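Model it.
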Amino acid sequence: MNPGKKGIGMTSQRTRDRLIARLREKGIDDDRVLSVMAQVPRHLFIDEALASRAYEDDALPIGCGQTISQPYIVALMTSALLGDSVPRRVLEVGTGCGYQTAILASLVDEVYTVERIESLMSKARRRLIGMQHRNIRYQFNDGSLGWPEHAPFDAIITTAAAPEMPDALKDQLVEGGRLIIPVGARMGQELRLITRTADGFTDQLLELV
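Modeled.
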């Protein structure tokens, strides 16, 4: 991987370590997640003009009206997804620029990622393949439908908010599987953890976002 000129001055490990320290201060304590986030080069997933802000704890625009998620939210959702054990097969709904995808691919055996905006999917796929991630499958489609051909999944993560809980995603979980999803309107979202049990599903509020 050769970052070239992009993000000169922002690619040092010290810069990334400062972000990790901020995440710890906010209560993220999953060393599995923090270790990966310290290594994944976030500056490669945004436009060069924004590279100087790559390791701030902020969401940033990536085009098509979409954003790369705030690092704190990425860390929180990924930690909740992993739980006490690392899932083997994960579905990601909303590839976006591919940053969350790269985090997942560094932690689990198989990532299935779905994106509804074709230009974002194409860029993310080229970027992730160039970074030598070989355990990702890609689909251009409506992510609210999941990816039934490859279900069930050990875990599902949704990077964009849904107005209400999509049953199709819940139904594609294995027993014991976990779904992490923000639900609600833009200004009133709830980050929720859904777990499939032998009797149905449990629903836990993780945070207001």
